[in-house]
Amino acid sequence: MALRSVGHPQKRAAGMAFYMGSCGLFVLLMIFLRPYCTQPLAQVVAALAGGFGKLTGMFQSYFKYGVIFVNTRAGAISLLIDFECSGILEIMAFVALLAFFRAYTVYERVVVGILGTFYIILANALRIIAICVIIYVFGMPSYYVAHTFVGRILFYALSVLLYFFVFTKTQIIRQKVGGFTYGTDK
């Protein structure tokens, strides 16, 4: 978009508003909301993952503290859901981008923002579940691979799916070219 809008002052201004607004809102959210939202978000993710653990008997969640306890044959491991594992960065980045994405109305942005936030929380809980299941099945030595590779690939694949439907597909469907539009919008 930035390359195509070089010769168009209105498009360049809209692009700069999107970039500057999204980055500015992200920084403001990090400064003002992150300190209050990180621990409750970690507790929610631990509770969601802990529900699966309790059902299967594979691990226990102490969601009040944001901790998951996985008992393996070789011993036990405690997983602390902290700032990076809470999903707060991903939620704030999503909300900041969505707030300045002009393909949606304000009402649609609010609804998509709420639904997207829940989706990110669930995707993060699935990531934690996958990590815990791998550790339970393969033991403590599998922690590094489970956390660093499998968990991240799963979470980012789910995030890319969200971003595709929220941003890319919507942009294509609502794009007007000449006298016709893409998708079902007429």
Helix content: 55-70%
The main sheet comes to: 3 strands, antiparallel
Number of helices: 5
Overall average residue pLDDT: 90
User: Which structural class is indicated by helix and strand composition?
Assistant: mainly alpha
Straight-line distance between termini? 24 Å
Strand order of the largest sheet: 1-2-3
Q: Based on CA inertia axes, which overall geometry fits?
A: elongated
Number of strands: 5
* Low-pLDDT stretches: none
Strand content: 5-15%
Specify Rg, calculated over alpha carbons.
20 Å
Order of helices and strands: HHEEEHHHEE
Report on this model:
It is a single chain. The protein is mostly helical. It contains 5 helices and 5 strands, in the order H-H-E-E-E-H-H-H-E-E. Strands 1-2-3 form a 3-stranded antiparallel sheet. Strand 2 and strand 3 form a beta hairpin. Helix 1 runs antiparallel to helix 3, helix 2 packs across helix 4 and helix 3 packs antiparallel against helix 4. The protein is elongated, with a radius of gyration of 20 Å. The mean pLDDT is 90.
Short description:
With 186 residues, the protein is mainly alpha-helical. The protein has 5 helices and 5 strands, in the order ααβββαααββ. 67% of the residues lie in helices and 11% in strands.
Please specify the SSE layout and strand pairing.
Blueprint: H1 9-32, H2 34-56, E1 59-62, E2 67-72, E3 75-80, H3 88-99, H4 106-138, H5 143-174, E4 176-177, E5 180-181
Antiparallel strand pairs: 1-2, 2-3, 4-5
Helix pairs in contact: 1-3, 2-4, 3-4, 4-5
Keywords:
single chain, 186 residues, mainly alpha, three-stranded antiparallel beta sheet, two-stranded antiparallel sheet, 5 helices, elongated
